[in-house]
């Protein structure tokens, strides 16, 4: 959410443009990226004096074995700096679990009583500062009211540390998220590294929560309302340069200098050579945040954005707004923190939070490679086909450090692919989501190769993985395999990006295919750079190595991977089939298109089904649904009239791309239902108009989707409900606050769901009959998630 930009736009339109030019867009000076550079400007307060080296430290606790479970032995330097290092044993990241917080209190009590203590540095032994409060501890508390005293204890602990009156420095390398950043916000000085892994953020909103360790208050005082709201309402993290620019950190250094600079800073804060920074606001920010008209506009804009983005379905953003507003009107005393923790506990008890935490858990679980063997080492990836799909795959592959060959039939086709990638990277560069250095490296990693280029064979001779993204044509795909097998080494994995052709047919042994064991399906979603899901489809003969390799590369490309069975539509499109039929049935019954879209947006889908069809293309939706209708889904594809879309394709109404689908598009945002579509629908429906209730529309579409997901689980097309949830949330945007189809079933109650489906089956037909698995769960009262 570009809150700042939006507010500036509003204010600018109110005769403040000149002020904006003079003040609001003034460039902010960035800090030198490493300590060595900072040290050259030694008179600046940004350049701390040389640190007493870590090797001069004397052990504070000189036990031979480790004294604390979650911290390394704390050291006190000769100048009285205590270096406290978070170090969760046997875990990749540090979290603030209940036990860590308990031990932190004990540690502090011991440390604070030492008169030699002059200042403190908090840092970590891992490539992670702190990933936040422990999400699983929060989930494990059944009665969420019990979280209030737990958070109160944490707050008392932070206050107690502050009361000791010694300067505290947070030395951050790697993620400092949620409660981790909140810990740093209690410190007097924050230093972070310029490593790409360093990111600072308050992502609690993504878990349906709010920052409960004082974050809503402390972040707002530090960086101002607009920037704090932007961070807290979107949950997005910021990198070192942005963190410095907005005043979230005071200093940025190279990782190798972090500890010594932090110690030197702590010493400087004690002896007065370094001053604690006071938050500063630009003139424009003061106008917006500190004047009644500015505040009025600011809150109006924030409210509008939250309403638009959440559809009223997510309580957390509203609670965050409430806490910040409360804090601004109760700025002194501890009331504002009390209010914050009470709101936190309320949110933690919501079903939305439970669902969103479920998604986090599922995403984490899906990062684990399910294969029994190690993936093959992959250095070079060849992408066949430089269309939208191929270029997108090449882009995400190059971004993650692989060498990429982008092959197509001629220079023009390769050029289009390269242009697509370059334009995307230029956008990132412009938005400061990528440095010029990264841009240059990425572009240099991709080698375009047109058919017939003399070096093709040489390049392919060292490819470890080939991903094919050409037309959906079985013969063509097999011809490509033949070419590739001739040029590549024996270990090279061949991944086919198909949405419709069975992997088994592509990999069937024959003159074209000699290494079927190396073939696996990798089904990407379009547009590849922004869609988070990847379906990985082994056929019966796929080797464990090939599967493991596809999974590892997909995960490294930033995708959440689910392994699915080789059946028509795989998982996501298979579930989409029954929805498309049901949409055609509802349209045939005379439900207006806008009503359909509105109902499903209210259900929580990011866009309604009519808009979705126009966006993916009426031709694509029509092809998928007719393909699935002729596949093995039987009665589950019944009950509609797919000529709705095939007629449209014949008319050339293919959706947004042709400016004419269900809607007529006249601009980026302008769309309406034109007279030709109204006339067509009149003919299609026989003039019927239905005033079906919103709930009935939602249930008719949702039941068919959810039933198909359950049938996929019954038929072992997906491995478990976790994969089923993540697949539909990330693949088609199934309401994230419902947590996916299986969490949704658990929340509604499978028994009730089955009753609803049976009711529809009685009146509308067998396409609504619940699958056996749903009937079994309804009978036993079992839940999909524990
Ligand atoms: C009042 C305060 C409230 C809060 O603070 S709520 C929590 C807010 N924090 C977050 O939402 C951050 C969540 N975590 C992440 O975004 C990522 O993780 C990281 C960026 C920190 C690291 O990513 P990567 O390097 O890819 O590792 P990985 O596979 O995601 O996680 C490694 C292990 O760490 C566990 N983990 C990560 N964060 C937390 C957490 N906040 N609470 C509990 N566990 C966490 C995972 O589950 C997994 O565990 P396993 O290895 O057993 O699968």
UniProtKB/TrEMBL annotation:
Residues 380-567 form the 3-hydroxyacyl-CoA dehydrogenase NAD binding domain. Keywords: Fatty acid metabolism, Lipid metabolism, Lyase, Multifunctional enzyme, NAD, Oxidoreductase. The keyword Transmembrane helix does not apply. CDD domains: crotonase-like. InterPro entries: 3-OHacyl-CoA_DH_CS (IPR006180), 3-OHacyl-CoA_DH_NAD-bd (IPR006176), 3HC_DH_C (IPR006108), 6-PGluconate_DH-like_C_sf (IPR008927), ClpP/crotonase-like_dom_sf (IPR029045), Enoyl-CoA_hyd/isom_CS (IPR018376), Enoyl-CoA_hydra/iso (IPR001753), FA_oxidation_alpha_subunit (IPR050136). One of its GO terms (biological process) is fatty acid beta-oxidation. Its EC number is 4.2.1.17. GO terms for molecular function: (3S)-3-hydroxyacyl-CoA dehydrogenase (NAD+) activity; enoyl-CoA hydratase activity. Residues 40-62 are annotated as: Disordered. Residues 40-59 have a biased composition (Low complexity). It is an enzyme of class 4 (lyase). Transmembrane segments: none annotated. PROSITE patterns: 3HCDH, ENOYL_COA_HYDRATASE. Residues 569-665 form the 3-hydroxyacyl-CoA dehydrogenase C-terminal domain. Pathway: Lipid metabolism; fatty acid beta-oxidation. Belongs to the enoyl-CoA hydratase/isomerase family. PANTHER family: TRIFUNCTIONAL ENZYME SUBUNIT ALPHA, TRIFUNCTIONAL ENZYME SUBUNIT ALPHA, MITOCHONDRIAL. This is enoyl-CoA hydratase. It comes from Cyclotella atomus.
